[in-house]
């Protein structure tokens, strides 16, 4: 065995922890194609509750992967999500690792 083999982390260790949760990965995948999307659009496509979506998007925002914009107040308020450059790069790397693990 070479030193490289013994010191290299397994491929799965390269997966981004912020993107291993299926709902967060699905949200990032959606935003990577949509550019930006409002709360209702993302909620409907992921088929999750308001509170669950808020929790997942907060985690992505804290990771620096999503920007959130809120306009208006009360019932007429709109929340819009957009993937950041860091989010796009992390999603791209995560996909590459997954493809490598799957042998694609």
Radius of gyration: 16 Å
Strand content: 5-15%
Give the overall pLDDT as a whole number. Answer: 88
**End-to-end C-alpha gap:** 25 Å
Kindly report the name of the CATH homologous superfamily: Winged helix-like DNA-binding domain superfamily/Winged helix DNA-binding domain
Strand order of the largest sheet: 1-3-2
Instruction: Write down the CATH class.
Output: Mainly Alpha
Q: Which structural class best describes the helix and strand composition? A: alpha+beta
CATH topology: Arc Repressor Mutant, subunit A
Task: List the uncertain runs.
Answer: 1-9
SS summary, helix count: 5
Domains (count):
1
Helix content: 40-55%
| Tertiary shape | elongated
Describe this entry's structure for a reader.
With 104 residues, the protein is α+β, with helices and mostly antiparallel strands. It has one domain: Arc Repressor Mutant, subunit A. It is built from 5 helices and 3 strands. It has helices at residues 3-7, 22-34, 39-46, 50-62, 85-101, and strands spanning 36-38, 66-71, 78-83. The longest helix has 17 residues, at 85-101. The radius of gyration is 16 Å and the shape is elongated. The chain starts with a helix and ends with a helix.
């Amino acid at each position: 065995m070479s030193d490289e083999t013994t010191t290299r982390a397994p491929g799965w260790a390269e997966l981004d922890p912020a993107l291993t949760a299926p709902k967060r990965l699905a949200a990032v995948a959606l935003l990577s194609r949509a550019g930006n999307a409002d709360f209702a659009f993302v909620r409907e496509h992921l088929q999750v509750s308001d509170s669950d979506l808020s929790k997942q998007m907060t985690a992505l925002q804290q990771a620096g992967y999503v920007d959130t914009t809120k306009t208006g107040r009360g019932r007429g308020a709109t929340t819009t999500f957009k993937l950041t450059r860091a989010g796009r790069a992390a999603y791209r790397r995560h996909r590459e690792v997954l493809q490598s693990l799957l042998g694609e």
